[in-house]
Write a structure and sequence with these properties.
single chain, 266 residues, 7-stranded antiparallel beta sheet, 5 helices, 27% helix
Length: 266
């Protein structure tokens, strides 16, 4: 889902963020050393170097703390607010939850250049994990073509790469076995609306610069409500199936887009 140039740039950007966090920690250590040193005890008249050190020390400490906080937010853990009711009754609108990011890989803010082919999307490919557990609640970036889009979804992983899935009669089957979803109330209906479950509607081919294209209306590309989860992707559903925009409408989620997992949510 990203070319070699994107992979290289994302790795460089992520390492810059990682090193900035480590640098801030080193700055704190040096600050403590200077604070305990002889020059920090007093500033004698005429000693401009010691006076300057005393004056700039608070600013250095503030910068180090800012870098450390940014590093923790991007790479370790972040507190977010749930918006909407797609994960009801597990999560409610306005709930505050913690997102753990260490196990999913280092993420950096997205950056794309207008009118250019290169976009910097933030994750170290060698660092991000490819393995997830069925039933995990994760936060992921909207899998669209616009890298600057700031839409994030929170859903539950139902299918893993290589899984055979089927949604039938309100039940979800993975590898031909119905999965137990104790987090769902009995009134929840899993079957999608007809507009999401019907076979893809195809327009006649449209000729554009001698290139033939077809317009398809199906997030799962004609698989309907059964098929296989492709490699490097997961199948996600919201707990509130009647009011959730999930894989039934936006398709499989590349693991590259997963930003973190909800800490302590079952």
């Amino acid at each position: 889902y990203f070319n070699e140039g994107q992979e290289l740039l994302s790795g460089v950007a992520a390492w810059v963020v990682l090193l900035s966090g480590l640098g801030s920690a080193l700055g704190l250590i040096l600050y403590t050393r200077f604070l305990d040193g002889p020059d920090a005890q007093s500033a004698e008249p005429g000693n401009d170097g010691s006076l300057l050190l005393i004056l700039i020390r608070p600013f250095v400490l503030a910068l180090a703390l800012l870098l450390l906080a940014l590093h923790i937010k991007i790479a370790v853990i972040e507190r977010v607010e749930v918006s909407g009711k797609s994960m009801y009754p597990t999560l409610h609108n306005g709930d505050l939850i913690w997102i753990e990011k260490l196990s999913t890989g280092l993420n950096v803010p997205d950056l794309s250049f207008p009118f250019g082919p290169i976009s910097v999307t933030g994750k170290i490919p060698m660092y991000g994990r490819e393995w997830y557990e069925r039933g995990e609640v994760v936060v992921f970036r909207y899998p669209g073509v616009n890298e600057d889009r700031e839409d994030y979804f929170i859903k539950r992983i139902i299918g893993l790469p290589g899984d055979q899935f089927e949604i039938r009669n309100g039940n979800v089957y993975i590898n031909r076995h119905e999965i137990e979803e104790g987090y769902l109330p009995s009134s929840i209906i899993t079957n999608p609306r007809p507009s999401l479950s019907q076979p893809p509607v195809q327009h006649p081919p449209v000729e554009l610069n001698l290139l033939s294209t077809e317009v398809k209306y199906s997030a799962l590309y004609g698989l309907g409500m059964e098929g296989y989860v492709p490699e490097h992707t997961v199948l996600v559903l919201g707990d509130n199936r009647e009011h959730s925009r999930d894989s039934r409408s936006i398709g499989f989620i590349p693991t590259f887009y997963i930003q973190g997992r909800a800490f302590g949510v079952r």
